[in-house]
Amino acid sequence: MGLVRILLPLPRVAAKWAPEKGGPLLGAALSSCVTPSWAGLRSPSPARRLAWAEEAVAVYRATADADGLSRALALRAHALLLSGRHEEAGTAAAAVPDQASPALTAFLGDVRAQALAGLGRAEEAVSVAHASVRAYRGLSAVDRRDRALGSLPGALRTYGMLLAAVGRSEESVAVYEECAALLAAMSLRELAHVELVRPQVLAELVAVLRALGRYTDALGVGPEAREALRGPLAWAVPEIVLPLRARLLIDLARCHSATGDPAETRACAMAAVVEARKPHGADALPAALDCLADVLGQLGQTDKELSTRRELAALREA
């Protein structure tokens, strides 16, 4: 949390001059820094998260707090995942002691599943993600400090994403819909810990429904998905929200095209390009331009279509 980050020098001093009491205090503070739980708080960079997590591991290794060490090791695995170091993340997650709490074990399963997916091992990741979901379902209660680590909605989102990746799209839709229903029933306080999961689930659900040719169903989810991607999240995690928003608009444009609504098709395609031109949306720009070019061609706007395709070609050659 922001306040803990600001006050971090204090437990560092305490750990230096009174290791027996200050060490666990510093470890807890560092763990809190890695897992901020305030909605709308700008996330620290993956590099900073990893540095804090590694410091927490080093601090806890010098104490007798086995639970604290397990938590720090799990946070390090997650920070490696966020840094794109998937193989190291999977190895780190597997290295956490077996006596970790049930909530931590469930969280580590989700980390391992995402790490395997990042390594292109989606088939293997599906069973790991399913086990993580089962572990979360078996939790009777979650300790307050573990709530920011992971959640059943987060594990369901990972599972749904992996099912779609291996071609089990109908099952993916069922999982995404279950997750969306679970999120809809949560209080604002509960949602604060899973604020990013809802827009991801809704946008990815639209994509899977479109892939299945269920265009009307996808358009039915569209307004809620667009609303979920507005607000403070775009400021807090633009690197995730902006590409997601651009891809959602592309999917909606394609769905409107399939259902014969040229006005909405063009509006969504143009909005997708606008979002993708923003710095954090650049990865989605080729797909957005391709979509817009198709739409302009369908509308008979040949000059604009050719201009858009030339820009697309130049982008791909760069």
3D architecture notes:
The chain is mostly helical. It contains 18 helices and no strands. Helix 2 packs antiparallel against helix 3 (19-34), helix 7 packs parallel to helix 9 and helix 17 packs antiparallel against helix 18 (302-317). The longest helix has 21 residues, at 238-258. It is elongated, with a radius of gyration of 22 Å.
Topology:
Elements: H1 2-6, H2 9-17, H3 19-34, H4 46-61, H5 66-82, H6 86-94, H7 102-118, H8 122-137, H9 152-165, H10 169-184, H11 188-191, H12 197-211, H13 215-228, H14 233-236, H15 238-258, H16 262-276, H17 285-298, H18 302-317
Helix pairs in contact: 2-3, 3-4, 3-5, 4-5, 5-6, 5-7, 6-7, 7-8, 7-9, 8-9, 9-10, 9-12, 10-12, 12-13, 12-15, 13-15, 15-16, 15-17, 16-17, 17-18
